[in-house]
Structures are given as C-alpha cells and as structure tokens.
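Supplementary Note 3. Input sequence used for the single-chain structure prediction.
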Amino acid sequence: MNTKKEVTHLGYQIIGHAIKVHKTLGPGLLEIIYEHCLKYELEKSGFSVVQQLYVPVVYDNLEMDMNLRVDLLINDLIIVELKATENILPVYEAQLLTYMKLLQKPHGLLLNFFTDNITKTMKPFVNEVFNTLPDEW
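The predicted structure, written as discrete structure tokens, is reproduced below.
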C-alpha cells in the first residue's frame, strides 16, 4: 500500500528528471523525443516505466479500442502526459484526468517541454484514488 506522502515524493522525483531532460535538450523538439529521454532517465534511476500504455474504454460492457495511450506510467502510480506545445489547453488537463480515472491511478503530471522553465508550466493532478490513500504509515 502506498501513502500520499510516497506518491507525492515520487511526483517530485519525476519532475526532477524532467527538469534534467529539459535543461539538456531545451525547448523546440518533438514530444516523442522528450518522452524517450525522460523514460531513459527514469529507468536509469531504477523506476518502472511503461511507455504508450493502452487505455481501454469500457461503456456498459462494451470495450472499445479507441487507441488511447498514456505517454508514461511510472511505478504503476503516476501518469505522465508530455506536451511540446505553445499553449496548454484545458483539453490536455481533461485528458489526463480521464486517463487517471480509467486506469485508477492516484496522480498525474502534465509536463510541457515547450517552455523556458518546465516548473512554471507543469501541472500536477490528484484524484479520488489519491484521497483514499493513507497519509503515512
């Protein structure tokens, strides 16, 4: 069982690795490049990373293959959606929150690499799954 404190700490570690990737590469590249580099950095540090995880959509016993994919799932807890765009649109936030709900994951990070400072543009999210976790052991 994970705690809110552990999940939050993991989120900070992921952000630290994203900052490293961003400082090394800078803005202006394709999203997929940042995705591969962040996956590499996280795995190098011992994290479990699933890239382009299929997200099933089930409606009333009907499972639809809509080709929804999560960019990165870290330690089976945190979904990371990466962008490399001028503006973060509300639809990106809604997309991440929906992925978190469909996969029952407590935490999500929306990271935009098209920026001069990734910490100013990144957005963390938690949901009802996070709220059910104990604060600490």
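The mean pLDDT is 95. Residues 54 and 69 are 5 Å apart (CA to CA).
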